Amino acid sequence: MDSSEIAERIWLAIAQGRLAPGARLKEEELAESFEVGRARIRSVLLQLSREGLVDIIPNKGAQVAAPGVQEARDVFYLRSTVETRVAAQLTGQLTPQAADDLRDIVRREREAIADGHLADVIRLSGLFHLKLAELTGSSVLQSILRDLISRSSLITAVYRDTGYFNCGPDEHDAIVEALMGGNEDEVLRLVSEHIEHLRADLNLTSEQQPVKNLRDIFEL
Ligand SMILES: [Zn+2]
């Protein structure tokens, strides 16, 4: 299994809440679970730590990052700031092809929800937001948003109140149509409200959570 696939599996286990914040990520156990060498696991863990999903603690090893309540609030504040900037730049500027690409992501998101494919739901929800950033052509907006969305997934896994993660395909559709319509006030209102809904689904009143066994999580 290559590094990106391992990273994806660990990311998903975190995003789906199977791997709790603070859980130890032992190189040896992971190497065994994925049937690869420890050097590969080490590079995957480094990559995940750059994305804010894993903390590497000297003399102790890696563990799933455990974002605090304040960090969670900061991440959603930043998302709102960055994403309204993205939306303002795209208002009235989407090509018909770009709009179709966005609608296609939303369509796949709906299918994933209907099929109960949580992993795809999480991935496609994030992809919608990343695609908007990509369409601005700004590499700084894109890389900052990629980082914020990784962190949001972890925060959502930790602080989601109950039930199913769902970014909201109806709201995504409304954003695409408003971008095409070209009314910036309308676009900014929809984007702000959407991020606010994501934040409102979280229980940010208390710090969270227990730890599980790695072997149970990565049973292949
Ligand atoms: Zn969304």
Topology summary:
Blueprint: H1 3-15, E1 24-25, H2 27-34, H3 38-50, E2 54-57, E3 61-64, H4 69-90, H5 96-115, H6 118-136, H7 139-159, H8 169-181, H9 184-200, H10 214-217
Antiparallel strand pairs: 1-3, 2-3
Helix pairs in contact: 1-3, 2-3, 4-6, 4-7, 4-9, 5-6, 5-8, 6-7, 8-9
Bound molecules: zinc ion.
Question: Any descriptors?
Answer:
220 residues; mainly alpha; Four Helix Bundle (Hemerythrin (Met), subunit A); 2 domains; 68% helix
Task: Give an account of the 3D structure.
The protein folds into two domains: 75 residues, Arc Repressor Mutant, subunit A, CATH 1.10.10.10; 132 residues, Up-down Bundle (Four Helix Bundle (Hemerythrin (Met), subunit A)), CATH 1.20.120. The protein contains ten helices and three strands. The chain is mostly helical and 220 residues long. The mean pLDDT is 88. Strands 1-3-2 form a three-stranded antiparallel sheet. The termini are close together. Bound molecules: zinc ion. The site of zinc ion has 7 residues, from helix 6.
Shape: globular
User: What portion of residues is helical?
Assistant: 55-70%
Structural class call reads mainly alpha
Poorly predicted runs are none
**What is the tally of helical segments?**
10
CATH architecture classification name of the largest domain: Up-down Bundle
- Overall mean pLDDT: 88
Tell me the number of structural domains.
2
Beta strand count: 3
Q: What distance lies between the first and last C-alpha atoms, to the nearest angstrom?
A: 11 Å
Which cofactors or ions or other ligands sit in this model?
A: zinc ion
Run of helices and strands: HEHHEEHHHHHHH
CATH class of the largest domain, anyone?
Mainly Alpha
Q: Assign the CATH superfamily of the largest domain.
A: GntR ligand-binding domain-like
CATH topology title of the largest domain? Four Helix Bundle (Hemerythrin (Met), subunit A)
The main pleated sheet reads as:
3 strands, antiparallel
